[in-house]
Amino acid sequence: MSLFGGITTEWYARAWLLLLPKIGPTLTVTSMVLVGAMIVVFPLCHALARRLVPGGAVIRQITMLPLAVPGVALGLALAASDPALRSSGVLLVVGQLLITVPFLVAGLVPALADPDLVEAERVAATLGAGPVRRLLTITLPSIRLSLAAALLMAAALSIGEFNLSFFVVSPAYQTAPFALFSAFLTQRVEVGAAGSMLFGVALLPAAIVAAMLARSSLSRKETS
């Protein structure tokens, strides 16, 4: 459909058709990354915040390495580690989880180290509350804003990641950025540009909400 003779939405329609089949795999991979974050990264953040592991400062610096190492290098290292896992999509999830670790650690460790939270957990423990009950009734509710912001940022990073994913992706788990890459590779520049615009617009709300949640969490700490 053309508007005013020179403006058309045709490329956006074609880009949407190109992106549509990738939405399912993209959401599947992102969901697995977020589950992995809660299972693996959250306990690590808790241990770092409470100084439960020796060399915590060194470990925290190590978690920042994905920011310094190019995604291409990480992707090649993962692809060479166990090529058999590539077809299962495991390497893709592990790789995307790796790049989210610095942001999860930066968002969760300060929240979990909050003195008021530590004191509330200590009081609950003296009253007989077990670890699981303290986690569900005190820890998670207290850090809900920081946790939501960190997970939203991790989701946005996972959805948009391409450099690392290119080397470990399985045909069954090709995510949305691969549709854009395919468009540019086949010289469908207009479709690729329109798809990039749609992709950016789709990710923008998540980034804005994550920033607002992080700011609200900081304001709440300052006023408490």
From TrEMBL:
This is ABC transporter permease. Its main location: membrane. Keywords: Cell inner membrane, Cell membrane, Membrane, Transmembrane, Transmembrane helix, Transport. InterPro entries: MetI-like, MetI-like_sf. It is a multi-pass membrane protein. Gene3D superfamilies: MetI-like (1.10.3720.10). The chain crosses the membrane at residues 23-45, 57-78, 90-113, 143-173, 193-214. It is found in: Cell inner membrane. Residues 23-210 form the ABC transmembrane type-1 domain. The lineage of its organism: Bacteria, Bacillati, Actinomycetota, Actinomycetes, Micrococcales. It comes from Cryobacterium sinapicolor.
